[in-house]
Amino acid sequence: KAGVTQTPRYLIKTRGQQVTLSCSPISGHRSVSWYQQTPGQGLQFLFEYFSETQRNKGNFPGRFSGRQFSNSRSEMNVSTLELGDSALYLCASSSDGGAVTEAFFGQGTRLTVV
Amino acid sequence: AQSVTQLGSHVSVSEGALVLLRCNYSSSVPPYLFWYVQYPNQGLQLLLKYTSAATLVKGINGFEAEFKKSETSFHLTKPSAHMSDAAEYFCAVSDLTGANNLFFGTGTRLTVIP
């Protein structure tokens, strides 16, 4: 069974640009969550999608958005990039997004904003 | 609000020695608690989870954790450290809404000395 796949693995963007990150969950999983990991703030929840609908959202500005497709693949978009957006972005998938359902993480996309 | 606090950002142990990584939680209701491990340039892998079924939880790779309500703690232990245990460990608590949105601690980096 293939794991969670995130593409690209590494990305360098210029301040002010926008970026789209992709996450393909484990086959059959309907819930996809996104997290930002930085040395200063640690791991922070961005948002969660289930069956193409955003169910939960963390405390991030509107520049951070996402969507989920009918095949459960998800994309995350960050517009007007700032230096502080440099981080490892992790995607996690689970079968139903329930509180005790195991979430499987991808290897992440490391975004560097210069 | 749900939160976890990990005491000690860095822990060093000798190979074969006891591993003890500390986690305290804050929650208004009985929480769901998790321990994840992250190896360099990798995503997170679930070690174990507490879902109120049993206070002593056994996980993968010989790790276990005990839920102590009186101490609001969920410390991670392993009787004998192995070189391959060197990694960063995160304690996490589930969102109260019942969704699989995790609030992570700041992490503890474990170094194993040969």
Keywords:
heterodimer, A: 114 residues, mainly beta, four-stranded antiparallel sheet, 0% helix, B: 114 residues, 54% strand, globular
Strand content of chain B: over 45%
What is the element string of chain B, with H for helices and E for strands? EEEEEEEEEEE
Helix amount of chain A: under 10%
The mean pLDDT of chain B is 91
**Strands of chain B, count:** 11
Largest interface (CB within 8 Å) is between: A-B, 27 and 25 residues
For the biggest sheet of chain B, the summary is: 6 strands, mixed
* Gross geometry of chain A: globular
Q: Identify the overall geometry of chain B.
A: globular
Helix content of chain B: under 10%
Low-pLDDT residue spans of chain A? none
Structure annotation, total helices of chain A? 0
Oligomer: heterodimer
End-to-end separation of chain A = 37 Å
**Count of distinct strands of chain A:** 11
* Rg from alpha-carbon coordinates of chain B: 13 Å
User: Whole-number average pLDDT of chain A?
Assistant: 93
Which helices and strands, and how do they pair?
The complex is a heterodimer of chains A (114) and B (114).
Chain A (H helix, E strand, L loop, with lengths): L4 E3 L2 E4 L5 E6 L6 E8 L3 E9 L2 E5 L6 E5 L5 E5 L8 E8 L9 E2 L3 E5 L1
Parallel strand pairs in A: 2-11
Antiparallel strand pairs in A: 1-3, 3-8, 4-5, 4-9, 5-6, 7-8, 9-10, 9-11
Chain B lengths: L2 E5 L2 E5 L4 E8 L6 E6 L5 E7 L5 E3 L5 E5 L4 E6 L8 E8 L7 E3 L3 E6 L1
Parallel strand pairs in B: 2-11
Antiparallel strand pairs in B: 1-3, 3-8, 4-5, 4-9, 6-7, 7-8, 9-10, 9-11
